[in-house]
Amino acid sequence: MTTDTPTPSGAPVDLPVRAADGAPFDIVQTYHDLLAQNRDLTKPVVAIKALISLLENTNSVTAHETMDVLQASADRLTNSVRNPVPLVAGTHLFLWFVRQMLRDEGGNFENVRRHLVDNGQVFAQRAIHARTGVAEHGFRVIKPGQTVMTHGSSRAVLGLIERAQQAIPGRFKVIYVRDHYNPKESERVVSRLRKLGIPTAPIDGASVLTAVKAAKPGVSAVFLGGEVITKGGGVISRVGAAQVAQIAHESSIPVFVCGEEHKFVAFMPWWNEIGFDQKLLDFGTEDAERPATDDPVEWVPHDYVHQLITERGLHLPNHVSTTIYQTYGSFDG
Amino acid sequence: MAAVAPAPGPAQAGQGPEATPPPEATVQDTQDENQSKTKDDPEPPKPAPAAQSAKPAKGGQQPKADQPAGEKKLSGAELKKKAKEEKAARRAQAKAASGVAPQGPPGQQQGQDKGGKGVKPKQDAPSGSQSQRQAAKPVAAPAPPKETKPKVPVIFSHLSMAKRISLQQTDKDVDPRITLLGQQMAAFVVDDSTTRTQATLLAMKRVLAAYSTPQGTTFSRHFTAHVLNPQIDYLAACRPMCFSMGNAIRWLKLQISKVDIDLADFEAKRALSEAIDNYIRDKIDVAGPVIAEKTNALIKDKDTILTYGHHFLVERTLWLAKESGKDVNVIVIDDPFNPVGSEFAKRLRAYGFGKIKYSPNLGLLPDYLKLADLVLAGAEATFSNGAMYARAGTADVAMYAKNMNVKFVSLCETINYTERVSVDSLTYNEIDPEMCTEDGVRLLFDTVLPEHIHRTINEMGLSEPSSISGMLRKQEEQE
Amino acid sequence: MPSAVPGFAPTLDSYLRSLKGHAHLDLTIQSLVDLLKRRQISGPEDCALATANCLRQVVAKSKWTDADTLLANVSRAGSKLMRARPNELVIGNIVRRVLGLIRDEATEDRNDGAPSETPSEGQMTPIGEMSQSFHSSAPTEAPRRPGPVGAASSANIPRSLSMLLSAKDVADNEGTISPFGNSGTSTPLHRTTNSQVHALRSEVINGIQEIIDEMGQVDDQIAAHAEVQIRPGDHILVYHPSPTVQRFILRAAQKRKFTLLIHCMPQPRGATGHDNYRALRDKLKSQGVQSIVMTTGGGMSYMSRVNKMIIGASAITANGGVVSENFSTIVAAAAKHHRVPIVVLAGVYKLSPECPYTQETAVEFADPMQHVDFSDGSLVHAVEVKAGLTAFLPANLIDTYITNLGTHTWEHLSGLISDHYAEEDVNLHLKAPQDA
């Protein structure tokens, strides 16, 4: 599967899968349910959980058949959402892993299935631990007396900042760039940081340039998270992140993209080509009610990124491609 | 003097009159000269390369070459005659001067007259140093050198450097006051551009006072050609003229040329003398305090000011800030090869500045800039593109300041402005004669790019560097 | 940076000589710790050499019967040395090299009999090639060593991706989440027999000798690139050239006519920099290469005439930054402004997996607050007093890194690091003292 075009084509397939109560297994519904129930997990991991759930409910016998079902379900799932990229990160990794493990187990699908189904909790735990790993590797970037800046509500980023606060309580400041599309969430984040005792200054996206130039002694680092970390080391994040990164880059402030490695995708976006259609420019000569975009995202180019912080440490941006290549044997995943 | 309060505190060390004592201190009547020397500088200036405390810190540039309106009054024939005289003088000097063998990788000064300074051949303010260098080329069989020509690496061979003309070699036409001044300049006792220009004008005043027009000529014709020019030649030979000296002399010649031909000598001299006084007053005595005031307005209480080396305009400004009740911190970064900042910092301390930091070189510049709110630097000159000619190292400070979002402010009187343009530090520069061998050089200046300068302040006010050319045009129209 | 002052003060030489004796191991380690702390051994080359020799003693003399214990011994001793001089990154590099060496040898011994599928890695690892194995790459100085296990096995997949779902380590939560666990036993190294211990010991000691040899050859190998980097007529700028840089320049001078500008700071007591490099300059002169000593306040004044700047390094950090001499940043910044390429020369043993961001203590910037102050009106030239102050050049200033393995750019660094250091050793400097 070439992941440079992560939106797979194909109509939903009729699946020979039934849930325990006999109703047809609905991968999409399962995914959304799991997402709602597991606020702590990232989308790629929830997608994996959904597929594991499918495995639990499948009664196909042969490995071949099961792989087909899995692939079809994955496609169905990713087709069903507007922004499939984070889901693809998960489903792609999962499918690849299943194939690998099948080979290792000599084709014994039952072993594979049992392993995956039995250890669902463990996987979830590991995913969460990976987030902690990001914080552990990255908190030292923040040194006493510094001012750092962040945007969005990435749990990996916030975990890092909180870990830093544990290490050097009250000795650094945060400039938080509010998200225009998620004002309540921004409020919550600011509130949480402040409760921890971190001096936090919220600003609007429009004020970033001035804030960066005016801050004394200057902003030392910018931390960004995102749904997926793309080939090259960029990230797809909330709208507003790219500007923050660019401004930081121009002022020689290092930008750190923080995230678990299961967010890596072998996909290189290009500005508004981010894997799905997000209407950006809507020229019109008549006033008309246009629906606001739901949770808009954008690509932060790797040119602006100084280093990645993952559960395995700090890396240069080319680490994504390196890891993909070493894992999958090709740059395309 | 301006309304600003008098001298900042106790004695100034070293570099001539920084902020207050009457500028005349450098050049006085012959009887007082010895006194004035010691007042300004602990060591009596020697004709030979000077002592360390008067380390050459800044320098000037080659003489001004231009033809303002006034010059046209000298006829073509006059000019030709002058040129011939100069050439003869040069040849004579060439024979006496060291023969420079043009071979050898360390590279002699391949003094080409087209040197990067854009000296126009018709110039009438000759550059003694250049003529000396020109002598290097045509001489085929060099006589044993009386004066050793310093060797300069080729890539810097186009740059000017102070010559050390010994007293014996001085032309007999040179007034003793000028001789003294020339020696002081060559020894870098009288060092920065403003002081040099002021001293030059005052010395010219004396020369003027001692002058009487011979029978059969007119004042305006004779004085310039036969008295003024040799003095200028000599000064330029001692050390290349700075831009403001060129400006001042050009102005002076213009005034001379305007003198009514029928006016009696004493009248003419008095008028000129007065004109010189006014010029000094307006362009130097008043300008300094005005600049200090305008700069002081930029300084807020509790600001941290960073400065490089020493310049009297900066010193004056800081003193004024303190007097006006502001509590400011000062960081002095020094040039390790001419640590004038050291004395400056001590003086600041003596003035009562509580919080001063001193660093002997630029090594920790970024760390200090983190603490700074403002960088102040005094200029040796300002180019018409807004670039600033200043002590070597200033360009580094300005570049860093810009990158770290700290405002860099340049202080410079308009007398030190020139219509020349510079975009790098090797177009116009000067080599330290004390530290120049075939092995190595020290450059005295660099050029701060306009993009690194937040504001430039002169007695006309504050502006951004890009407006300088407009101001100069206006000034030229008025002349 | 210069070595310790000769004379009665103990130096690297006397320390190395002392190793020939029969001193107790703890004393050996402690005396090096002291020498490092007192800066009687200083400069990256000397520190590296001393560290390698000390660790060799540890391998030879400490008690151990399996690889794990040996790793722990070396780790403990190494951490002591690192803490004695936390800003001399090269010490940690050598420790990690030795640890990696031990892991490799032990793994190899374990796998003995299984034919290797990949070709051995030669002396010159192709630059930029992704290494197949993540955590047990062979150090490149051993041509005889068989290469790492092939990529087919899932044990070699980057642990993060497969780790999530893999069967093997279901009960095992180490590695990714606790970066500073014990010395990384993801490939448990079992108890070995006496003869195996003996074999391992001699192999590791040989390996350490190879590292020492590698360090000795570095300057020569780096100089081999000189004539590519320096072209006829170039004006090359150096700042306080180290022996490595001098060697490089001299090699170029054999083939090229160029001009060398040496930027110097004034020496104490007013001496100029002219005499410092007299030997270098005379040699250059005899080759027809002119050198000019620039004794000017900043770098901007003459930089418009420079084609290239060449500097040495005490260390290169994982994100491409360079630890170098104080003031070199100023000159480098002026170079960058004029778009003058900056080339860094350093043996690959100076490349550190550490980032300045993960250092507990900043590279010796020293807070300016503690530097200078005026007390009672007198000037304190504190900066002058503090010799050997270093500076950190960020990666965006550097164009090219030249090591004994070739010419690299920033993109290559992560590959080089993973070639030379095991992942579990990367965070050695963060280990809690009680673990060491």
TrEMBL record, chain A:
Gene3D superfamilies assigned to the protein according to its UniProt record, in alphabetical order: Translation initiation factor eif-2b, domain 2 (3.40.50.10470), Translation initiation factor eIF-2B, N-terminal domain (1.20.120.1070)
Top-level lineage group: Eukaryota
UniProtKB keywords: Cytoplasm, Initiation factor, Protein biosynthesis
Record-linked InterPro entries: eIF2B_alpha/beta/delta (IPR051501), elF-2B_alpha_N (IPR042528), IF-2B-related (IPR000649), IF_2B-like_C (IPR042529), NagB/RpiA_transferase-like (IPR037171)
GO cellular component terms attached to this protein's record: cytosol; eukaryotic translation initiation factor 2B complex
Keyword presence, Transcription: no
One GO molecular-function entry: guanyl-nucleotide exchange factor activity
Cell compartment(s), UniProt: Cytoplasm, Cytosol
Protein biosynthesis among keywords: yes
A Pfam family: IF-2B
Quaternary structure and interacting proteins, as annotated: Component of the translation initiation factor 2B (eIF2B) complex which is a heterodecamer of two sets of five different subunits: alpha, beta, gamma, delta and epsilon. Subunits alpha, beta and delta comprise a regulatory subcomplex and subunits epsilon and gamma comprise a catalytic subcomplex. Within the complex, the hexameric regulatory complex resides at the center, with the two heterodimeric catalytic subcomplexes bound on opposite sides.
Sequence similarity: Belongs to the eIF-2B alpha/beta/delta subunits family.
Protein name: Translation initiation factor eIF2B subunit alpha
Native source species: Emericellopsis atlantica
From TrEMBL, chain B:
Extent of Basic and acidic residues compositional bias: 34-44, 69-89
A Gene Ontology term for the protein's cellular component: cytosol
Cytoplasm listed as a keyword: yes
Keywords: Cytoplasm, Initiation factor, Protein biosynthesis
Statement: the UniProt record of this protein carries the keyword Protein biosynthesis: yes
Region named Disordered: 1-151
Gene3D superfamilies in alphabetical order: Translation initiation factor eif-2b, domain 2
Cellular location(s): Cytoplasm, Cytosol
UniProt GO MF annotations: translation initiation factor activity
Biased composition (Low complexity): 1-18, 49-58
One Pfam family linked to the record: IF-2B
Predominant localisation class: cytoplasm
Assigned protein family: Belongs to the eIF-2B alpha/beta/delta subunits family.
Subunit text: Component of the translation initiation factor 2B (eIF2B) complex which is a heterodecamer of two sets of five different subunits: alpha, beta, gamma, delta and epsilon. Subunits alpha, beta and delta comprise a regulatory subcomplex and subunits epsilon and gamma comprise a catalytic subcomplex. Within the complex, the hexameric regulatory complex resides at the center, with the two heterodimeric catalytic subcomplexes bound on opposite sides.
Entry-linked PANTHER family: TRANSLATION INITIATION FACTOR EIF-2B, TRANSLATION INITIATION FACTOR EIF-2B SUBUNIT DELTA
Stated name of the protein: Translation initiation factor eIF2B subunit delta
Organism: Emericellopsis atlantica
Automatic annotation (TrEMBL), chain C:
Family, similarity comment: Belongs to the eIF-2B alpha/beta/delta subunits family.
Annotated spans, Disordered: 106-155, 175-195
Keywords, ordered alphabetically: Cytoplasm, Initiation factor, Protein biosynthesis
Record InterPro entries: eIF2B_beta_subunit, IF-2B-related, IF_2B-like_C, NagB/RpiA_transferase-like
Chief location of this protein within or outside the cell: cytoplasm
Bias kind Polar residues: ranges: 130-139
One of the record's GO molecular function terms: translation initiation factor activity
Alphabetized Gene3D superfamilies for the sequence: Translation initiation factor eif-2b, domain 2
Any single GO CC term annotated in Swiss-Prot or TrEMBL for this entry: cytosol
Protein name: Translation initiation factor eIF2B subunit beta
Subcellular localization, as worded in the UniProt entry: Cytoplasm, Cytosol
Annotated Pfam families: IF-2B
Subunit structure: Component of the translation initiation factor 2B (eIF2B) complex which is a heterodecamer of two sets of five different subunits: alpha, beta, gamma, delta and epsilon. Subunits alpha, beta and delta comprise a regulatory subcomplex and subunits epsilon and gamma comprise a catalytic subcomplex. Within the complex, the hexameric regulatory complex resides at the center, with the two heterodimeric catalytic subcomplexes bound on opposite sides.
